[in-house]
Amino acid sequence: MKQTKLLAKLNLTEKDLDEIKEAVVRAEQETTGEIALAAVGESDDYSFYELFAAVIAAVLAFAVLLPFHGPVSRWIDGLVWDFSPWLVTAFFGVVSFALMAAVFLLFNIPALDRLIIPPKARSESVYSRAARYFVESGVYATRENNGILLFISLMEHEVHVIADSGILSKTDSPELSVIAANLAGGIKNGTVKQSLLEAVRSCGEILIREFPAKDKNTNVLADGLVLLEK
């Protein structure tokens, strides 16, 4: 998903992004920890599930057409000069393939895509994508292992908060789960900016409590919300 389209779906403006970035900067001024934020349109392309649903639809269409072999044969016979039985088979094949293609395209619509993708598969894909970004962006590489990532996957309607080992050794996981749940709820309700600002504030409180700023506080990660295309 293009960044401009993702920004629109999140109902955020460039000004909102600046406010979120400023909130991250303020939070990090009082801690040696780092806060990273990222959003992606979807964490996987889920082609297997879309294709599987399309094939099932095509098989069902073929099965439904079989009892109408006689009427279809007579209809085709009235259309062509030289009727041959293979024309009926070809007609069934074309209809089934056309339906398969249509269903495959249809299930690329996010609202319908969520209907065919198992919740467990969605959650695993989002966590995997979040973990990959956690490594790629360098959140894992802070000096005190005190980086924290807020990751939003829009199509799946999921948020993951991934904290490095230094944070997890001092903070209960339920505290992070509450942040993720509140952010997910805010996105669902359309209050994305406010929810992100609140999530940044909550993460900042944890980091300030456990990793207060020292004389020299080096910022090693990009501030603000990063929009990922895939």
Task: Explain what the structure shows.
There is one protein chain. This protein is an alpha/beta fold. It is 59% helix and 10% strand. The chain folds into 2 domains: 3-44 and 118-228, Diaminopimelate Epimerase, Chain A, domain 1 (Roll); 47-115. The chain has helices at residues 3-9, 14-28, 47-65, 69-77, 86-106, 110-116, 119-136, 165-168, 173-189, 192-210; strands at residues 34-40, 147-153, 158-163, 225-228. A 4-stranded mixed β-sheet has the order 3-2-1-4, with helices on both faces. Helix 2 (14-28) runs parallel beside helix 10 and helix 3 (47-65) packs antiparallel against helix 5.
Short description:
This protein is an alpha/beta fold. It has helices spanning 3-9, 14-28, 47-65, 69-77, 86-106, 110-116, 119-136, 165-168, 173-189, 192-210; strands at 34-40, 147-153, 158-163, 225-228. It has 10 helices and 4 strands.
